[in-house]
Design goal:
The chain is of the alpha+beta class and about 200 residues long. It is built from five helices and four strands; from the N terminus they run H-H-E-E-H-H-E-H-E.
């Protein structure tokens, strides 16, 4: 604490603070010093329960919990993985995956709302809908430019000519490629023979 005393605290508040300063695609478990996600041992003295080693942390990680850990050779404590307790095989295992998807939903929805009650030419439904879908791509392009996602595409499924008069619904399909992450580093070290 500021007065020099120590106190046992729940680290959820710390995690929320880390998320507040992270970009949507950024893992708060980043270990590079310049990323600023390490928790100095002057501020976080130890993890509880006392004596918890990495094997217990790894069990909690497998169970889907967000945990903190130390790495030999690094001075700070770090978030291990930002797990979301999702089912095995989910595309949204980590908070950064969910945060990116939520931003895409939020930003493309804003653009979609601006299309409500637009009138379209029924002689060229596909062309009219594709033209409007380009407006919904603008926030995706901004996210690509900001390196929040790797790429994206928005398409208008064919065949809406038959349904647009009945349900008056524009359907689009958005597909994006997220950023990649290095979760583990594996080194194959061996001794080489001298060349002749």
């Amino acid at each position: 604490m500021l007065d020099g005393t120590t106190q046992i605290v729940n680290l959820a508040g710390l995690v929320c603070g880390l998320y507040a300063k992270a970009a949507v695609q950024e893992s708060i478990g980043k270990t590079r010093a310049e990323a600023g996600f390490g928790i100095p041992k002057t501020k976080l003295l130890e993890l509880l329960p006392a004596g918890m080693d990495n094997s217990i942390i790894e069990l909690l990680d497998v169970a889907g919990y967000l945990t903190f850990r130390e790495y030999d050779g690094l001075d700070d404590f770090f978030v291990y993985h930002t797990k979301m307790m999702s089912p095995d095989g989910s595309d949204f295992r980590y908070a950064e995956d969910v945060r990116v998807k939520n931003k895409i939903i939020r930003e493309t929805r804003k653009e979609g709302l601006l299309l409500l009650n637009d009138d379209i030419d029924l002689e060229d439904v596909q062309g009219e809908l594709e033209t409007r879908a380009k407006f919904m791509f603008v926030p995706l392009q901004r996210m690509i430019d900001a390196k929040e996602i790797s790429s994206a595409e928005i398409t208008v499924p064919e065949g809406q000519e038959e349904t647009i008069l009945e349900d008056e619904t524009m359907r689009v399909k958005i597909r994006y490629v997220s950023r990649g992450y290095i979760r583990e580093v594996e080194v194959d070290l061996g001794r080489a023979q001298p060349s002749d």
